Each structure stands twice: as structure tokens, then as C-alpha cells.
Amino acid sequence: MTFEYLRQSLFFFRQNLLTLAKINLPFLIVFNLLFAQIDFSTAEEDSQSLANSLLLMSGINLLMMPIYWGATITFMQSTLEGPTYTASQALAASLKLWSKLFLVFLLTSGCIFLGFMALVVPGIFIAIRLSIADYLCVVENKTPLQSLKSSWQLTAKYGWTIFQGIALILSGIFLFKTLVYSLLGSILQELLFLKPLINSLFDLLNVLVMIYGFRIYCLIKKEL
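User: That's the sequence. What structure does it adopt?
Assistant: C-alpha cells below.
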């Protein structure tokens, strides 16, 4: 059924591309424009400065993600329950949940980081088991700790389905991005301002992961 869920996710993405772009692209473009200012050529000379810049960008990303991620989840839920939200309505709704969703992201990121510090496999396992925590926080208004606990319990039987779908999506995006950059390599070297925009468009494709995750979340709740 993984491919069927992927097909449904792609269909939803295509049908609602304009709204999803309005929600996500402004934040993705800002982040990629800021990220483009980091000078990686000084890595050997001033590694500490580079590390500080990357840490700052991680912090900025962590602060912004609850807004557009929460808005995307709110929008997806509104398409099920009605009335369907506009991009601005979804963003306004997500701002009310920012603090809770921020804590969910912070706790989830910390758990995954510790898992990867141990070995790669535990990190992936933890990421899968906590993958619906944000949906539980937004849709069911659970506290951050309740969201993580419920996600861990509810995903026990769906780990392989979650892993398969996300792995296929990310692999497909990676291959497509590699192809595009190999074809446009020389152009991007001359027109550097295009790179953040193209990166933002590829980041928009990552919304497919969110849509797929939401589809699995709906499946889990239906089968309870």
C-alpha cells in the first residue's frame, strides 16, 4: 500500500500546489537567501566562524519551521473537515500553536540527534517513531510531551510503511536535484542569485514528506 499512499500524497500536492507554495515558499526563500550568505571557502581558515554561522542558521530554521509546518498541517486538516483554509488563515492558525509545536520540534530534534550520536540506525528509528508527533500536537491539541509519547505508541506497527514512503520521496527528490544541478551547473556559477531560488523550489518538494506523513497519521487514527 505504500505506493498507493504515495500516489495519494502526490495527487494532493498537485491539487493544492498554489496554497502549499503560498504557505511554505516565503519562509523557504528567506532561509535559503540567508544560507547563501555563508562563505564555506573560509572553512579551513576560520572553522569556528563557519560553525557559528551554521548554528545560527539551524536556530533560525527551528524558529521558522513551526510556522509554515504547522500551517501546512492545519491546511491539510481543513481539507478533510472543512471549510478549507486559505494560506493566510492556515498561517494565522499555526501562529497560535507556535510555542507548542516549537517544543515538539526541539524535543524531537534532540531525541533524533542523540540517536544519531549513538549510531545512524537508532537515529532513523527514533525519527520514524516520533514522525507523527507534530500532527498530534496540531490536530489533537496535545501537549509536546503527550505528542511525543502518543507518536511513539501509535507508530509501532507502521514503522516500515513510514520509512519506505519517506525514503522513496527523499531519494526521488535527491536524484531530481542532482540531475537539475548537473544540467544547470555552469549557469548557476554565473547567476548565483538563482541557486537560493532553485533550492527553495526543491525544499517545497519536501512538503510531500509532510503530506505522506499526514496520510499515514489519518490511516493510524482510522484503524484505532
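The chain has one domain: 2-223.
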